[in-house]
Design a protein that fits this description.
Bound molecules: shikimate-3-phosphate
Strand content: 5-15%
Radius of gyration: 16 Å
Number of strands: 5
Number of helices: 9
Structural class: alpha/beta
Order of helices and strands: HEHEHHHEHEHHEH
Strand order of the largest sheet: 2-3-1-4-5
Largest sheet: 5 strands, parallel
Distance between the termini: 19 Å
């Protein structure tokens, strides 16, 4: 274990929460960060799916986006409320609920994983598992979602650019920036 990891593990007493647009690598970075820090990893989308026994697409289809947001806000509150060090990756729309934004500020260290819209589009354009993009203009949707959400993501404690994906570099940058805030 390197010195950075040892120091973070000694000082961290709350979860690290990853936020940002879909397709920016939150789940991938989150899993890698949790392994690097040797802490549990939770993905709020996967936790909602496991609890409901249904995919997010199926939840949207059957009950609508509002129901998914209720499930999401409750699940994130449960995960953040744990207070033990962990890494939590959230869905791209999680901060649209003010309760989640408040909780994130009060009880977690938050990290915005950012990348540009063209890169996101290339990564998600053929993905059928993201209900908000199942329409005629997925790129237009991405642009307008980002416009509405960027101000929320900016409120995260740490901001890391992940357009050029190099997991090792991104992990160390997150580690250093998190440590500075502990
Ligand atoms: C959403 C992002 C998805 C998922 C759901 C809604 C959004 O998560 O929660 O499809 O509103 O941006 P990812 O960001 O993990 O793709």
């Amino acid at each position: 274990m390197d010195d950075l990891v040892i120091e973070i593990r000694e000082k961290l007493n709350k979860p690290i929460v990853l936020v940002g647009m879909m397709g920016c690598g939150k789940s991938h970075i989150g899993g890698a960060l949790a392994s690097y820090l040797d802490m549990p990893f939770y993905d709020s989308d996967a936790e909602v799916e496991a609890e409901q026994g249904q995919s997010i697409q199926a939840i949207f289809d059957a009950y609508g986006e509002g129901r998914f947001r209720d499930l999401e806000v409750n699940k994130i509150a449960e995960l953040i409320g744990g207070e033990t060090p962990s890494v939590i990756s959230t869905g791209g729309g999680a901060l649209m609920r003010s309760e989640t934004l408040t909780l994130m500020k009060e009880r977690a260290i938050s990290v915005w994983i950012e990348c540009d819209v063209d890169t996101i589009y290339e990564r998600v354009k053929d993905d059928t598992a993201r209900p908000l993009l199942q329409n005629e203009d997925p790129k237009g949707v991405l642009i307008s979602l980002l416009e509405r959400r960027e101000g929320l993501y900016k409120q995260a404690d740490v901001h890391v650019e992940n357009t050029v994906q190099d997991t090792e570099v991104t992990l160390r940058r997150i580690g250093q920036e998190v440590l500075e805030r502990l």
